[in-house]
Amino acid sequence: MSIVMETERLLLRPWRESDAEILFKYAKDPAVGPAAGWPPHTSVEESLEIIRTVFSAPETYAVVLKQIGEPVGSCGVMFADGTHSAAIVDGEGEIGYWIGVPHWGKGYIPEAVNALIARSFNVLGLSALWIGYYDGNRKSSRVAEKCGFTYHHSESGRQVFDGECRTEHFMRLERAAYVTDVKLRLVHEDKERYMDMLLVGDEQESMARRYLPSCALYAVSAGGLEIGVCAVDESGEGCVEIKNIAIIEGFRRKGYGRAVLGMIADMYPGHKLKAGTGEVPSTVGFYKACGFAYSSRVPDFFTDNYDHAIIEDGVQLKDMVYYELQR
Ligand SMILES: CC(C)(COP(=O)(O)OP(=O)(O)OC[C@H]1O[C@@H](n2cnc3c(N)ncnc32)[C@H](O)[C@@H]1OP(=O)(O)O)[C@@H](O)C(=O)NCCC(=O)NCCS
User: Fold this and answer.
1) How far is ligand 1, taken at its centre, from the CA of residue 9, in Å?
2) Which one, out of 14, 77, 190, 320, has a CA that is 20 to 30 A from the CA of 173?
3) pTM for this structure?
């Protein structure tokens, strides 16, 4: 199933039939398709047909520039049954991409490919990824290099749409070699945009709204894909408090939460770092595993301040318990 992914400048979302005209605008250009092995589109109807057939495959995404709100290219992961490297096996994928000429040279495709890599390894559970490019397509090989792929092998005599025979080079990235690059970005504008993620860590919106305006809000990304948030109250003297930390489903238990706490601790050297939470094994287990120890409690915090019973792991939250990093 394809989902919607967000990176700093892009949305990756399934193609829609209503995208046919925009697709045609870019895909009719002879500078785009032939380099990737497909013929330029000849009509809006043909583009519509491609959306209905080729682009409806799972894990195929329109690359939408957030700034203009429309697709400028396409990217996706194909699996062992639908791809063309002779070396691909079950459990591996091949990434394909293109972008319209006016948008070349801005790093959009590496940004999109990094998101696909994160999803492929962390959510789809693939063990390796391939990128194939035809001899001479330096732009495409640069994307693969920038995203950590290395040369694997070449296959000659590969026929493309117009009967021409070309040599195709294949680059490979193994899951084990993929170093996830976790980043925190301080959100200055429109903190509300992260409300859905904040609600994962604190389910009552009115409570999240109490601290959101005065907190430093960090967006967490891995490989360019936004995967979580962390809200930090910096107002205490010599003490900072984590008000909310959330990593989205599919990315949990992979060490991202621990990495975030480590980065926050490094950002506030010489400060006490504490976190308040309900008393449930999962979050308490998480903080303990990250070097925090119990420090205090506010009795009945959840029962007094929330307008409904908050149940986590089958337990109704009552007291707020504070844990503090043992530096
Ligand atoms: C709590 C949360 C932020 C942890 O993030 P994460 O990326 O999954 O955590 P990590 O993978 O870094 O976990 C580090 C260690 O914490 C412990 N831990 C994490 N989740 C745990 C759980 N559900 N139960 C028990 N221990 C857990 C483990 O020891 C883990 O190491 P391990 O996987 O090698 O055993 C994440 O699960 C989440 O977003 N949950 C929903 C929101 C929430 O409850 N936020 C906290 C309240 S504000």
Assistant:
1) 28
2) 14
3) 0.63
Q: Of ligand 1's atoms, which has the minimum distance to the CA of residue 287? A: 16
- Domains of the chain in start order, with CATH, are 5-178 (3.40.630.30), 182-325 (3.40.630.30)
The pick from 123, 218, 248, 253 for probing ligand 1's pocket by mutation, whose C-beta has the most ligand atoms within 8 angstroms, reads 253
- Look up residue 316 and give its two tokens: 């109704």
* Ligand 1 atom nearest 253 alpha carbon: 11
pLDDT tens-digit profile, the chain (327 residues):
668 888 889 999 999 999 999 999 999 999 999 998 899 999 999 999 999 999 999 999 999 999 999 999 999 999 877 666 767 888 999 999 999 999 999 999 999 998 899 888 877 878 899 999 999 999 999 999 988 899 999 999 888 888 889 999 999 998 766 656 789 999 998 999 999 999 998 989 999 999 999 999 999 998 778 899 999 999 999 999 999 999 998 888 888 898 899 899 989 988 999 999 999 999 999 999 888 999 999 999 999 999 999 999 899 999 999 999 987
- Closest CA to ligand 1's atom 33: 253
Distance 305 CA to ligand 1 centre (A): 25
Q: Tokens for 47, please give them.
A: 């583009």
Place of tokens 């996830």: 180
Buried b / exposed e across 40-75, counting CB within 10 Å, b at 16+?
bbeeeebbbebbeeebeeebbbbbbbeeeeebbbbb
Q: Is the CB of 255 under 6 A from ligand 1?
A: yes
Q: How far is the CA of 23 from the centre of ligand 1 (A)?
A: 41
Nearest one of 68, 145, 72 to 114, comparing CA atoms: 145
Asked whether 260 and 245 are in contact (CB, 8 A), the reply is: yes
Length of the chain: 327
Per the listing, tokens 């203009």 go with 68
Residue 325's beta-bridge partner residues? 292
